[in-house]
Design a protein that fits this description.
With 258 residues, the chain is α+β, with helices and mostly antiparallel strands. The protein contains 9 helices and 12 strands. Helix 1 packs across helix 2 and helix 1 packs parallel to helix 6.
Amino acid sequence: MSTETPASPVYSRKKPFPSKLLVNRRLTLDGSEKDTRHFELSLEGSGLVYETGDSLGVVPANCPELVQEIIHALHANGDEIVPGNDGAPKALRQALLTDYQITQPSKQFIQAIVERGGEAASFLRELQDPLRKEDMEDYLWGMEYIDFLVSHQAAGFTAEEFVKLLRKLQPRLYSIASSQKAFPEAVHLTVAIVTYESHGRNRKGVTTTFLADRVDEATRVPVFVHSAKGFRLPEDWDTPIIMVGPGTGVAPFRAFLQ
């Protein structure tokens, strides 16, 4: 009979670690047009290991207010049973919260609006001309599912028909802003919170506002480490380096400095 201790669970993209958010601190001053936050998430008990230059995958939940608006626009109550992103049945409200991307419309949804939207969809139908691809892209910029559900009620989607037109909610990757040599049981992020207005509505970045506004003491943040083997400090520490972050911002260089 084996007396070996069972291996600890391995956390990954398929099985993210339920992390506790330890710190949520605004870095930009009050009145600034930007809202940049410093987040610290616990890795205690996870066994997760990261290197400077790696990214942290964060699995978000959607905005409950937006979910409710979509349920209302579908003339549903949220309890309707629909397929989740793994095919298993679950309540519409839960599926919209955790399973599906509910902001940027899919091509399948736009096509369904064209086919079922009647006269109200005639302009959208015209934009499907291949020669008007740029016009279509300009028109769709800043538009979300809720805009089409409200303005094309004649499409009349059932709850199940609607979710079958959605894409799976994907994790977001953020450059890690800490070194595990300095913080063995935590990981830091430096994140600009995405909020903007388009077509008369306030829009929210799915994951940034999840972290900034919707994670409380009871909420756990599913996370995993995404390795970036090509983004490392030189093995020879005497090598002079220049750090340039035109796309990543300051986050990974804070980690390199630590």
